[in-house]
Amino acid sequence: MKTANKISQIVHLKQVVQRWRRRLPSAGSLAVYVGAERRRFVIPTRFLKLHVFVSLLNKAEEEFGFQTTGGIVLPCDAVLFKKLLNVLDGDERGIGNLDFDDFTARFSDLAVDSSSSCKHDTIYESQSFNSLLHKA
Asked: pLDDT per residue over 87-109, tens digit each?
């Protein structure tokens, strides 16, 4: 009976470790948090040099300032951000040279609500995000 209990504990521990490994970004990747629900995306670090991401990071700085704790929070709708990643996957060079406003104008049919996709929302306040991190 003790052996079966130890085996089930080992199996459970392996499952927990595997889940945590999947959540950690690999080398050359970065986790960012997007949208009101703070949806987590892991993006390649090479995206950070693209003009579309630089403009999105500038919007984040304008909206949130520089955070000393927590992850990078992007003031954008999560659905639109996912579409951005999908489009970049197909044409990184062409789309990467646009700024974020040009991207949303060019692909306005992709945005759920392009008028509110990257505007200030009280849900985005950094204190609420930091409290989420402390709970994790």
From this structure: 888 888 888 888 888 888 888 76
Contact 43, 29 (CB under 8 A): yes
35, part of any domain = yes
Cα Rg of the chain, angstroms: 18
| pLDDT tens per residue, range 34-44 | 988 889 999 99
In DSSP terms, 29 is beta-bridged to 44
Buried b (16+ CB within 10 A) or exposed e, 43-53: beeebeebebb
One-letter identity of residue 85: L
Total of domains in the chain: 1
**Residue at 4 is within a domain:** no
